[in-house]
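Fig. S4 source data, part A: sequence.
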Amino acid sequence: MAIPHPSSAVPGTAGGPARHDGARPAAPRGALAVTACMETLQIGYLHAVAAAAGCSLSQPFPDNGIDWHVSHGSPGHAVDDEVTVKVQLKCTGRIPPRPPGPSFPFTLDNDHLAKLARTPVSVHRILVVMLVPRAPEDWLRAGHDRLELRHCCYWTNLAGQPATGRRRTTVRIPTARIFDDRALREIMARVGSGGRP
């Protein structure tokens, strides 16, 4: 957590800039909107997971309600030598880390839900929701042996999910479905055998 350090006070500030490592003052953050930064952070998370799982990424252009295509090649796949899953990313700072219970609520516009819930499909879709701290300075920690992104991404398959609200619908995201490289490889193995994510 960023802590103001009196010894680094700068004229006109109350306590000076935040210090992260006890040795140097933090430079000011850029003026980019926090929501845009959240989007960039979740893309970085997806890229890291895809790299560790041996998957390739492509971004549809123009975006038609799906953010990324993730592909996994393996001679073990039964339906093709390479299978693809469409991924929709969402990010929120409103839910604390380690949500209690088996799931947490997340609200989608009905139009968006319809695209993710469509069934049957030739290419399966999953929703990946990232939970982040409210303060951007708490999103990332770097050290000599690791890079931590906080807090976590969770995934779900919404195929067949009905809309229940007039304009928006709240869906449940299972907390057991942490989106990491192992989860992505297991998703791709199921799709590669002709099943659902």
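Fig. S4 source data, part B ends here. The radius of gyration is 20 Å.
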